[in-house]
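Quick one:
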Amino acid sequence: MKKTILLFLLFPAIAHAVTSWWLTVEFAATETHIEGIPVTKLDPSWVSASALTREKIPKEALASDEMDPMKEFNYRFDIEKDINGDGKNEKILTGVYKDKNKKSGRFVLVLEKDKSKWKKSFVFSFEEKSGFSILNETSEGVIFWTFCMECGMASYIKWDGKKFYIEW
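Output:
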């Protein structure tokens, strides 16, 4: 009985010590434009959105981790790369949104250049807390989107010859 009570008393401290900041941090969707595009053009149900940046991460969150996996493993909030093979770079970025029903979520967005401006090519979003998400590339150059920098779970952003899609 004493061992069981001791475990219950220790578990919250252990769980707190191993929870990475990116699993708990939330971001506010405060902007009406992303890369010059009204958020309603990205999704008609959105009223605000924000692209994630390193500067938007609370300083105490970054300071809580001895190693910075973003720098260590080259995670980024946006990547410019030609992923559809047309010879022009797309811009892929992550962010959070709030919709007309005051629900929030995360998104990944692919933009293409139209003359000198970015235009939406693809957006994938889902309702959840307005939490962290980030991008990286596999050794083969495939871009992936993830919510965790240590768990190995990700979705791949791919081109099928006609359109972008997410492969889980």
